[in-house]
Amino acid sequence: MTKTPMTLRGADLLREELRRRKSEDRPRIIAAVEEGRSHGDLKENAEYHAAREQHGFNEGRITEIEAKLSNAQIIDPLALARNGKVMFGVTVDLTDVDTDENLRYQIVGEDEADIKANRISVNSPIARALIGKTEGDAVGVATPKGTRELEIVAVHYL
SS3 for 150? Predict the structure, then answer.
């Protein structure tokens, strides 16, 4: 089975969500199911059906998180060799050659990606173009608006 790369931060966030779902959400949802069950006729009991649906979703998410953590290859960016090379977990400062726009992205696992927080998936077109390159390199990235020319200004191991 292939391992899925994940940053230490991403693994910690998933572990915390798993802890919360098991120790806080699960007991609360089970209590809601029991409460709904105590109201009698289950066929027309909306509270009961809503609680059962919530229970199924929560248990599914617990299973999903456990699977992701068991298949994770956790990479700590602080432990990487600082050789100026772009690899999983690093933060990259870029300049768009055409617009002089400055960009900063951290390359993370698929589940950790959040463009609003400047974290892009290792499987994204930008990350795929950057992996293996070094400071000073320029790369062409195919985007829906056409090819963008990005120059790697700095690589940070944060």
Answer: strand
For 8-32, what is each residue's pLDDT tens digit? 999 999 999 999 999 999 999 999 8
What pLDDT does residue 77 have? 81
Please check whether residues 58 and 83 belong to one and the same domain: no
127: nearest Cα among 84, 94, 101: 94
Q: Which residues are paired to 148 by β-bridges?
A: 141
CATH of the domain at 126: 3.10.50.30
**Which has the closest alpha carbon to 73: 12, 13, 15, 8?**
8
Between 98 and 26, the higher pLDDT residue: 26
DSSP state of 77: G
β-sheet bridge partners, residue 150: 96, 139
Q: Are 147 and 100 part of one and the same domain? A: yes
Task: Give pTM, 2 decimals.
Answer: 0.79
